[in-house]
Known about the structure:
Elements: E1 2-8, E2 21-28, E3 40-48, H1 55-74, H2 79-92, E4 112-118, E5 123-129, H3 135-144, E6 161-163, H4 164-173, H5 187-205, E7 219-224, E8 230-236, E9 257-260, E10 269-276, H6 278-284, H7 286-295, H8 302-315, E11 329-336, E12 341-347, E13 351-358, E14 365-370, E15 379-385
Parallel strand pairs: 5-6
Antiparallel strand pairs: 1-2, 1-15, 3-7, 3-13, 4-5, 4-8, 7-8, 9-10, 10-11, 11-12, 12-15, 13-14
Amino acid sequence: MTSTKTETGNEKPNEVTKTPITSQRHIIITPPVGKRKTHFIGIHLGAGSHSLKMHDSYKTLCKSACEAGLRILKKGGSAEEAASAATTVLENSGLVNAGKGSNLTLDKTVECDAGFMSGNGHFGGVGAVGGVPNPILVAYRISELQNCSNELSCGRVPPTLLVGIGAKNWAESQLIPTCEESNLVSTKALKRHGKYMKKLKSAEKQDQLLLCNTVSDTVGVIVLDHSNKVAATVSSGGNWLKFPGRVGHSPQFGAGCWAMNRGPLSETSIAVSTTGVGEMLSKVQWAAECGRSLQNEKNTNPVEAISCAMKEKFLESDLLCHHKEPKIVGMIGLTWDGHRGEFVWGHSSQSLIVAVAGTAFKKVKMIFSTLSSPKSESIKVEAMLI
């Protein structure tokens, strides 16, 4: 197994670079000898500031989600099925900002986003949908519509994104479970909503910027199956106190997740799931950027590839220069060439929880990744062999 780490601190800007590298550390561990059919699953629990008090709860959730995917992979199931199953566990937990644990809008409602992408290029997204406990199932089903055997009559083009009540109605037509929208509003979310509303009113009176220092974004899953096929998911309840009807990056093509199988166009399979400030991630199409960086033949080191992408394509992007808010970004990704693969994760948030499982691991491994520097534009990127 190989682990590589890069940390970048945000020092005072100069004419050469805005985010110079302050330290690099490389740890090499001999990988296991011999090769066999490989399967792998990686998950993240969103970019933010995770409480150490929740460590054991997060570890249990990671174990449950990974094992749900592994059970399918061990039976010969597809990457798509495993990714959907693992994401459903996350959505049902009530512990993370997705499904039943989602943040509330200004109107105290739950509106969820989700995205699903198969390595064959099929994509589905669902946005601002209420009353759907597992939005990932809707996104997955929409992605299946891209199959040529499911052509619509009269030359109609299958949708890649459905939103709001239309998405819920379509989910019901597909026999995907729905519920009363109020059923997804948790007691914990209501308490936080009240706390942040007080902060918001206080900040508005004093003309101050409100920063909610907590986990604020998506969860996601990436999977490699025995057939060397990949899939990626992302699911989110959105930002705290978001406007009703707001759609984040999760259901947008190229922003929330990315997956591409090995084939004529690429010698490497790629899967990516992202997290962070949705409005910013959407503008730079962050998932696709990560995918391109990992797939670029010139980038043989995934840590360097993602570090460079975070710096040049996000933190210093001209598209985001007018944003006064902290530039929070995170991702997990995998590369697989048929014989060798790597799992990479990175973030500019205070923390990012990731977990991995598969043939290269005896058990589910959770990593509580934190920045060594509290500065908002520091980044950490690490990788390991899978």
